[in-house]
Request: fold
Amino acid sequence: GRIPSSFPLTQTVKRSVVLHNQRLTAVFLCRRVTMRGASTGIVYGGLKYQARSIADVKADTDHTSFLAGTLSLKEENEVHLIRLSPPGSELVCEGLFYHPNEIWDLKSCPFNPRIFSTVYTSGETYGASVWQIPELNSQSNAPQLEHLISLNEHSFKIKCVLWWPSGKHDKLISIDEGNLFLWSIDTSNKMAKVISQESVGMLHNLSGGAWDPHDRNAVAGICDSSLEFWDLRTMKKTSSIEQAHARDVDYNPKKQHLLVTAEDVSGIRLWDLRRPKCPVKELPGHAHWTWAVRHNPEYDELILSAGTDSTVNLWLAHPPGANDSIPVDSPKRPKDSLLNSYTDYEDSVYGLAWSTREPSVFASLSYDGRVVVESVKSYIRRK
Amino acid sequence: MDEKAKRTRELLASFYSTDHSAGGGAGVGSAASPRKMASPDSINSPSFDPDVYMSLLVQKLNLEGLLQKHVEMAAEIKNLDTDLQMLVYENYNKFINATDTIKRMKNNIVGMEANMEQLLAKITSVQSKSDLVNTSLFEKREHIEKLHRTRNLLRKVQFIYDLPTRLAKCIKAEAYADAVRFFIGSKPIFEAYGDSSFQDCKRASEEAIDLVIKNLEAKIYSDSEPIEARAEAVVLLKQLNFPVDSLKTKLLEKLEDYLMTLQDEHKETGASALDTLETSEPSDIGKLSDTILSLKTPTGTHMVSVGEISKIIRAYLIIFPDSERRLIELIQELFTKRYGIIERRVKERMTSADILKMIRVIWEDVTLMDEVLAEAALPAFSLEAARSIIRQFISTSFSHLLLEVSEALTKSQPMPKKGSEESSLQNALEGSKKVVIQGSLDLLLEFRQLLDDNLELLAKLRDLIVDWVQEGFQGFFQKLDERFLALCGKGYIANPDSSVIDAIQVDKVQTGLVLVLAQLSVFIEQIAIPRIMEEIAASFSGGGARGYEHGPAFVPGEICRIFRSAGERFLLLYINMKTQKISILLKKRFTTPNWIKHKEPREVHMFVDLLLQELEAVGIEVRQILPQGLVRRHRHSDSTGSTNSSRSNATREDKLTRTNTQRVRSQFLESHLAKLFEQKMEIFTKVQYTQESVISTIIKFCLKSLQEFVRLQTFNRSGFQQIQLDIEFLKNPLKEFVDDDAAIDFLLKEVIGAAHERCLDPIPLEAPILDKLISTKISKSREESQSSSLA
Reply:
């Protein structure tokens, strides 16, 4: 790792605290291993600053790797390419790249492991870009990222960039506070063109969204107090879920029409879009806000959530219809439950990513810049 | 001599026909030699050979022996001779006797033949004389016989001619049985000669018998006649080949009509009673149910008691022994309808005393009826009916209780006046508590009446009642839990299948109600359930109709578990609702301004007022419902001056620390460091059912939210300073609410820390300015509160 020359005091102390805690955590984890036989989290302490964004490098079929971006107002921000070593015992930094501004959102391209997108701000300015990781050679330990595309049509603060999650698609969605943009991108020619745009109006305040993996024309957007759905061909709203103060939304990767939301107060709620009036299921979520929520890409009944109470929770929530043949009272009917609560975090956890390559592994990123990779293998085997 | 002896022996043997083979010695007396000893020396054997015998003797015996043998043998021979002589004499004697007898017989028979011939002649003459007499008397006898027959016939004819008169006489004397007997007796004659000789007579008697039939019919119909007489009449009619069945149907129809009118009136009075019931006082209900159920209405003119009906039925049974089936149907119908009335009534809320009274009245009738018509199986039928009535009653009682509880909860909810709201929550809580416990105990008392009643019918249902009551409580509390959820707008979770229901908007739910529900759940878990459990154990144990594998129907442990978790859920929900409300406030505060272009702070931002106001509202609600924590904290504002002094202490502290910014930071970080581990424990501890715990949890959550909101922004120096000012101001008011100063300090520092991190130019406000702005705000808000209190 690189030690910056002008290290602010805040960071050094924080760092040392984190390192100190890692040791404590290690002891704690060891105890937990002997008690419960669960696998411990693998900690990556390479991020030096606060961070919010982590993404699974889905297109990397050879390694289980993640991209994490830092959020530092005053220091030079970094993007780390982290790889889980083959035995799964440690996290290795495969690449460290400087990023011009603090990263609020980072998504990896689902079909090219070297391409990813970031949303960033710098003081009053903001932007969203698509980057390419340069060919890695050992000489340069901090090579420059290749800037491919700027998504610079936004007039509001950009919230996130969405790639179509299910494979190669030449479209990209970017969401700012008031608009939804559909881009046609050409990474080889470094070209991006707005195909269509939809203004949500002053009343709605978009803060995020998700692209339906089952339908490349459907996208969900998180508004202040509702979840809105658009058809990208017409750029018209198709439906909405009212009374949902969502922070995050994730489509069920296996079953169409199902999605999950993370909300400040209501915790985690599972919805069926064909019946948007009331949720299919509710899970308590976190002690404070539930910030992020993700279905396991392979076992869709496993749901992971991250919260500002510095925990990551693993839930078992059977989607509706799966067990309808078993009567409600029957003890055989699997119950929805909190499988595990990972509590080895010192600050709010904002970043969460399942590995597509190894669905039993997820990475989490807490605000203090600590990446923890955990395996949920024991819970998968149990079902 | 030997030869001679042998011949004699043979003669004797043949004469006495003794068994030849047995040896002749038997008769002589020398039985000492059995045939086994038929050796040559055996003298009595048939194959006796004297020579061999002799030679043997000679060989075997010496002289002395031979001599002795000789003497023996000589004696024997002498004996035998004597015997023989005696026999010969004897036989001879017999022979002479026989000859004499034959001679005498010959003499007597002579002359007998002549006598016989004489006898024959006499008998022949007697015979001829007798024949003579017979033929001479024959004609006369025949004539006499003829005359006798005619006389009989004439007597019969006379009877038939007399029949009408006789019948009339019988009718007059009401001796119908005789009349019928006479008529039936003469029936064959009428059939034979009715058309010719006895035409008039037949007509007359038929007329008479018609009268008899009419009279008999009248007799059957008349209720005043003794039953036996009526039964006899039926028998007589039957003998007359009268169509009795049609008579029976007619009578039964009459009874049926009668019962129908009875029921109609019954229903009318029932309906009118129900009508009046709605308007009348509850005290009248008992009286009304009396009139509903007993058939003796005060106004009824021809109303009869079931006793009389039973009498009629008894009569009918005797009169028409084959009408039983129809009667059973009728009676069962009657009772079905009567039980039906109770079943309808039971859907309203009733006391068990009413139910008991109703069932008792019917049961009395049933027993009465059962004596008459045991085959109708009325007791079993009643048992079935009572079973469903009581089951219905129990379930109705529980659903009414459920309704009452939710009414008690919601009734006092929407209070438009601000002032009355203070106690309305408390009222709701106390009211609903009372309804839950008192209502449950009252129900138990009611149900006990069912158990304690000595009615035979209910005694059979005892186990079932116990089970139903237990099941009822189990179901009641489960439903209550669901109802609670529904009241909070979470009902769709308990009932996910009804897609139609519009989920009650969580926003519209009264937060106070949620708090009431939380506390009520605790009350139910800790006080109501144990109390009810005691009562049930005391008087509703047993049961067991469900079978042991199911265990008792009422599982207090399960209910307690449900309400424990419900209580926690409601408490959390309350906290969540409150924090969400504040969260929206904070979100607005942080998303509206452009923090990067923030102007220099001039005053404490007004959102703190809103925040404190919200917290104040929480305090009011919480104080009404929840108990105080055990540890009473020391209030900072016990005296008015202490606020200022603590404030000035704080500023002095600040002044000291701010001399060196580096030191400020290190101190901040040190405290940060120190609190790092505490953070989780302090912020997200388990909420307790105390005022302090709930308020402090809400404040902690809000401050944590504040921190998260700050982290999402980027501040310029003025923006940072504004946050610093607001937070600094909040410090003391917040501590008024919470006993956990350390946690509040920590969280407030976290907020400032977050702002510091997110600030491009984090230079804090000068202490004097900070102080001045805060004191301005304090005096201003004090003024405001004074003016508002004056107004």
Remarks:
- Residues 1-39 of chain A have pLDDT under 50 and may be disordered.
